[in-house]
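Discussion board: Methods & Data

I've been asked by a reviewer to show the raw model output for two of the constructs in my manuscript, not just the figures. I'm not sure how much to include, so I'm pasting the format here to get opinions. Each protein appears as its amino acid sequence followed by a line of discrete structure tokens. Is this the kind of thing reviewers expect to see in a supplement, or should I convert it first? Here is construct A:
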Amino acid sequence: MHNFKELKLFQKGIQLAVDMYTETFPKSEKIGLICQMRRCAVSIPFNIAESCGRKSDKDLSNFLSHSLGSQFELETQMITSKEIYFINGLHQN
């Protein structure tokens, strides 16, 4: 098993999730796109942490793949949000 808390990828995933909850979005989207974006953001470090608790390399790879899929989904949602002028861009570290 791996110590997920020491992984830079996990730490950046946590920061991304925090950024998604502290960013200001239009109130009209609170239940729609923004809710989905926040779920994707927290899913990234959740899956990284879960992958580190798995015993087989196949399971580890599977959960890391889910995390990457969530990252791609979130990136697409952010591009969409920018295109419809909901955001200018999230904070970047």
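Construct B, same format:
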Amino acid sequence: MFRTLVAVSVLLCIGTLPLSAQSFKKVAGKPQPTEFMESPWLVGAETVKHWQELPNQVNAPDYRTRVYPGQHLTVAVGARGDNRDPFLRGQIYTISITAGSESKVFERLQPAQVRRVKAQGADFVLSALRASGAGSGEAESLMSMVSFAFFDLDWVPPANAKDGTIKVMVKATSQDSTSHQLENSKIEFWTYERAVKEGGFKDNKEHEDWMMGYYQRPEPTRLLHHFRASKDDQNAFKPNTRLFCAEVLKSNPEAAHDLLSRLKEEDPVVRIIGVVAFLDAGYSLTGLLEALPADDRERFKMIPEKIPALPDPYDLAPDTQNVIKVPSAFDMLWSQFLATGDPKPVRAIANGLEWRKEGKDFLALKKSGKKPDGITVELAKGVSYMAAGWSLGSFYRNHPLVTDYIEAWKKDPAVPLAVREELGALLTNEAFKRD
């Protein structure tokens, strides 16, 4: 189900997507009134961690519409208008989050940070304008028309929460004691039982969308439905799929414990997929076997021998005996990103752009129509360079958080110059296009 992201295309270059016609409009000289957005957002507490090393202006995180046990969440309050940043900072906030009969009130809050949120697709348009030599000054000044205040709070659903609605209420009070009550936000809370009963994937697209957007909308309990959907999938035991599952299990131990307790009722193949995932996440085989039916135990003891341990995705040394070793590692690194949103695996892939000399030599060889004399370290580096650029370009187009990371690294002097230059050419470099 979980497609291989890079390795199957390492000898190809992809074409750039056609630019959509998008414009940034503003009435010159007309003041934009400052006001709150209608209602607060509930977002993952990990969002703030993702942004730690990013500049002020970022793409919006996904608004949570469904919450599960054990998840850590925070609140964002938005504003629009010319003076929105000082407006948001100048308020004192009271935030109340209610789940069932339990309410948690956070009083006298001030924003931990205020972030300007980019217009959807603005990074892509600006990159295309710069690449074409067209002026981007006005568009750049209009990248953001909305800001969000984020708070240093970490809310977790109560342990006894039942299926129902979570309500988020926010009151803001300005320095002159003017109060503003935002409209309440309502979000669904799903227990493990409901997620197991109703959280199945209606089709392959929903399944893949769940995986590709997991870091924005984590739903760890649906991993059981992934195991079920994967029992006839030849990709179920591929390293990138396995690493994704392991990272999901590690991200929410409470959900993992619940899932483990349910494996004994599943189809034998589903149990095997699940046991492999738990082993990859660092669980002991002894503990896993104790959670399974007695009839499974002798057979499942053989799993570590039949299914090798995951390779280290950060071992990116080229291998002349396996030219797709590094691109395959990129697949695993992207899986780690998709499960966590962590910049570390993306940064490791970007380091492959330092092999641009070897990449350009390999491109010239492809153009010549000649066959290589053999697999050399230089050729393996060239293949890996092209795979890195192709996959980074694809994720740049489709994952706003990756776009934020790349835009920050393009301006970061701590990033090697060659990598910065190559990141700036992701959309135009012919080495990253498909024939």
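Answer (T.O., handling editor elsewhere):
This is acceptable in a supplement if you add a one-line summary per construct. For B, something like: The longest strand covers residues 164-173.
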